[in-house]
């Protein structure tokens, strides 16, 4: 399989952590790929019209875009039924946590685009404030009930870990550990897993 | 179940079309909900920290955000195995089409926010051009191979139909039918299904 990604993206990191947790890295060739809004990339866009990363091309040539779908494909490929909670009684609540954590990544990446891709004169502070309002509402929710880790690790914990790692990488001034001490302890343990330690951005 | 949505959103419309195709509307109470970036909505945000629509609250109280996950939940609730291609040999290619169609909706909604929520002086034309570049690359891909409809209707066709309907609703000047005649014919047939006809925005 070919995985088009770059270490900086929390979406690509989510997929790479999944691949490592599933011991699939020998089956995957990483194709370093950079994308940014307003930057043309016709070669990559011929593969993924949305010009987003990550994207996976399976061995049979099937294209898979979207980190959630790629992660799901890898779990199915590996015959794993725990990462996506296939047989878990709380499956939908866990997948919902995954979607909220992925949404946090989306808000943070949007804030990064606003603050670093868009020309300064075209930035709009309420936009960034709105994104961080959503990020903090989501983190407050996770502070009260962080996803399972350890033996019961799921895609929800992986995506939330990637979101927090991205916040450290791009928004280190946010000081989220002071606001969310339970999440800080939760993340510190998670971040020691080899799959996380080997994929830290920056 | 309670579904928080509004007719204008292509994501909410995707879910409502799914609910109608699955004959679940008697099980669902629609809770009209409006959201917009930079507009506070503490009551709704207490439910969904990301302040996005749609959101579903299942009968057991489980919250489900993200249109793809809600649609998947409804299909599982109804015992339907065709909309998400559970047993189809081309399942991953179809789900990938779904993700690309959902991505088109995301680009269009982002363009709407850029052009109608953000103050005019803060808009940045290359941003909007970039979004439509992605939209058109995706539509060109679907023009060559539109998703199955009729008896073989899947979530990919539903999401693409919602994307095209949203383009008609918010960007009627785009004249996409001239550029994509096969998609235009494809959409004209799909749009006559009761689930589509009963959920047209505007």
Topology:
Two copies of one chain form a homodimer.
Chain A: E1 2-5, H1 10-21, E2 29-32, H2 42-47, E3 55-57, E4 63-65, H3 67-78, H4 91-117, H5 125-144, H6 155-170, H7 176-179, H8 181-190, H9 194-197
Parallel strand pairs in A: 1-2
Antiparallel strand pairs in A: 1-3, 3-4
Helix pairs in contact in A: 1-3, 1-6, 4-5, 4-6
Shape-level CATH architecture of the largest domain in chain A: Up-down Bundle
Proportion of residues in β-strands of chain A: 5-15%
Major beta-sheet overview of chain A: 4 strands, mixed
| Helix count, DSSP H or I runs of 4 or more residues of chain A | 9
Q: What is the multimeric organization of the chains shown?
A: homodimer
Most extensive protein-chain contact, per-chain counts: A-B, 42 and 42 residues
What is the structural class of chain A? alpha+beta
| Percent range of helical residues of chain A | 40-55%
Q: List low-pLDDT spans of chain A.
A: none
CATH topology of the largest domain in chain A: Glutathione S-transferase Yfyf (Class Pi), Chain A, domain 2
Q: Number of folding domains of chain A?
A: 2
Q: Strands of the biggest beta sheet of chain A: in what spatial order?
A: 2-1-3-4
The global form of chain A is: globular
- Order of secondary-structure elements of chain A: EHEHEEHHHHHHH
Distance between the termini of chain A: 25 Å
> Count of DSSP E strands of chain A?
4
Mean pLDDT of chain A: 97
Q: Indicate the CATH class of the largest domain in chain A.
A: Mainly Alpha
């Amino acid at each position: 399989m070919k995985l088009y990604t770059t270490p900086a993206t929390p979406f690509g990191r989510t997929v790479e952590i999944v691949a490592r947790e599933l011991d699939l890295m020998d089956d995957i060739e990483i194709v370093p790929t950079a994308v940014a809004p307003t930057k043309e990339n016709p070669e990559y866009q011929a593969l993924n019209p949305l010009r987003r990363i990550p994207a996976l091309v399976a061995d049979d040539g099937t294209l898979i875009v979207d980190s959630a779908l790629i992660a799901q494909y890898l779990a199915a490929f590996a015959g794993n039924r725990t990462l996506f909670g296939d047989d878990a009684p709380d499956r939908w609540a866990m997948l919902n946590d995954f979607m909220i954590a992925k949404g946090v990544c989306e808000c943070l990446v949007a804030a990064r685009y606003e603050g670093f891709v868009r020309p300064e004169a075209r930035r709009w502070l309420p936009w960034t404030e709105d994104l961080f309002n959503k990020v903090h509402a989501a983190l407050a929710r996770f502070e009260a009930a962080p996803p399972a880790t350890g033996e019961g690790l799921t895609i929800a914990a992986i995506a939330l870990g990637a979101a927090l790692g991205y916040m450290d990488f791009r928004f280190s001034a946010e000081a989220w550990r002071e606001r969310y001490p339970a999440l800080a302890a939760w993340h510190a343990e998670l971040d020691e897993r080899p799959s996380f330690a080997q994929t830290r951005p920056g």
